[in-house]
Amino acid sequence: MPEKPSYLGLLNGIALAESQAHAYLTAWIPVTPSPDVRAVLAEVAAREGEHGMSFAKRVNELGFELQVKDDPKQAERLAIAASDLPDVEKMRKLGLDPKGTSILDYFDNVYKDHSIDIRTGELLGRYIAEEHDTGRLLRDCYEQLEAAEKAGTAPTPVGDQLCALTERVDVLCRAVEELRQIVCAQAMAEVH
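Now predict its structure.
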């Protein structure tokens, strides 16, 4: 049997946590009324599932078996995700709001272990980068849901936001064109 790497527990823990996140995010997707939230959940769930499998695979590649541990809170997380609670409340209860997404601070010191092999380092690097992006996606989603909650409205669908933004850009383009014409006319007048 190969020598046990110092970071084997880290890989095992990530594999388990990511697989559990995939399970509850996947349970949430069909019950959210928001297509925007559904899109974020689908992207994040796919990442979490892939991370869980990739880290389990890496544990096996290193010559070890994934050590599965029961998480007593997983059943509660699954129940919350599949419930009819508002999405913003689910995010709070599952720790997917900005308070709960600071867990990535833990990874600031991962690379202090200089015994990490190249393939594991590559896997960890991609994982950390994707988790930071996942945190950003979840924060943005939460902020929109929270703003809608405070306003007492449903979140504005992305399509509506894009239409409004397109209208503003069109107005801005027309104003720039008018300004260009004025500047050109003044320049022509000065030449004559």
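Residues 72 and 78 are 11 Å apart (CA to CA).
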